[in-house]
């Protein structure tokens, strides 16, 4: 059962109850704030194109969030939380109308301590780093939308990113210390979840609590150089990426490997990417550069671009050509392209990667992002797919999974189906406690839908 916005809501009266909270009712703006990058998927394009909220509220304090929560519960109005809308799976698109809760004004960095920061949910990741980096600390990992994404949205809808080669994924113990959460009960409360309890709302698409504040661990600041290394052979590039990941003495933040013709889609890097090349886009700590060059030589690569750390704040940010930005750049050239998200099993020889690369060829172009899973370096793939039909896309997914590669399906808005393919009873139970009417981002949590149907 999906909560639906009551048809007889008196929206003028509803707004009056919010006493001073910013409300947006301009239809073009409401429609814009009801969307994310769901259109990367031709499947989601058709399912979500007509979904919009009735209005948007933009609180500037936790007290105002509580007021919005109380008003929505009183009228049984669905509420969908939004950060910057940089997700790709319809996480913040309201399936049942109602209210969009835009947390972009809740953006303070409240304090910074060695290795730790307390931030409000709407703080942008780059803005957090501007405060913490002068003190010697920085965000451990971030998506390619670093300059625009918010920390609350990243925790609610992300899984890892640039930095995951060092620190693993957001779900790993130690990558999120505490959160404050507003409930949608008859009398909304503020709960503080600490330690492993944070997993109740971590990567839950805002379906079971409104995150207003977070305590996040930080990593030490390194002088990061940006580097492009090109190769004549994709598997050589991939094995170089694996070797760099496995070389613990070389400090790195990004290992992103792209099969031809993907580098040809990067217009801003054209000068450094010879036609037909396979490329590794990297962030490496300056103290590691000398011995990094030895690894490049060992694999026969060519360094075509090296921006020293003191220049990395100027213009080109290699990270913005990696992870899901790769798909964005490719679609700017060819809008018919879509993508997959694939987790390969641990195999330093990359046999399954090679099989998929050779089996699908140009139909499924290989794009690897290396990160740590349980201490082991593993490639995740965000392959570019030449879309033909939904049936063919499903056949590609089925083939990967039949051969032992997990697909985190980016063509569904259901929380569980787009991730680990299992219902998390802890998150469902928490929703039952804090959102008994099922008003938070309804229709996205399969575990809740099944509980209500049963």
Automatic annotation (TrEMBL):
Superkingdom, taxonomy of origin: Bacteria
Keywords in alphabetical order: FAD, Flavoprotein
Gene3D superfamilies in alphabetical order: 3.30.465.10
SUPFAM superfamilies: FAD-binding/transporter-associated domain-like (SSF56176), FAD-linked oxidases, C-terminal domain (SSF55103)
Ranges of residues in domain FAD-binding PCMH-type: 49-221
Entry-linked PROSITE patterns: FAD_PCMH
UniProt-recorded Gene Ontology molecular function terms: D-lactate dehydrogenase (cytochrome) activity; D-lactate dehydrogenase (NAD+) activity; FAD binding
GO BP terms in the entry: lactate catabolic process
Pfam families: FAD_binding_4
PANTHER family per record: D-2-HYDROXYGLUTARATE DEHYDROGENASE, D-LACTATE DEHYDROGENASE
Name of the protein: FAD-binding oxidoreductase
